[in-house]
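We emphasize that the prediction below concerns an isolated chain of 96 residues; any contacts that depend on oligomerization or on bound cofactors are therefore not represented. The input was used exactly as deposited, without trimming of termini.
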Amino acid sequence: MVLKEKGASESDDEIRLAARFVVFGVGSKANSSLFDDKLLLSVPTRHIVVNGNLETSCEDIFAIGDVAILEGEEEASEHVVSARNQGKYLAKLFAR
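Result of the prediction step, given as a token string:
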């Protein structure tokens, strides 16, 4: 994975990380535009749809927190406690 600051030019320093898993936050609001045409999004809320294991429609991609909605649900659980519990669940899942 390569990290660069927003607006950085090609000549700016970059940070390269090798990782088994990558977890990143997009922001405090559900910002799913990054995943347009890549992941299944709910209509009209545009949350990323996940199954009971928090997996998205794209293999090996998981979503938690404000951006995620459980398939079949009409409303997302946008609360910090839900995000924490989802994170703990994924940590246990990845530790297997």
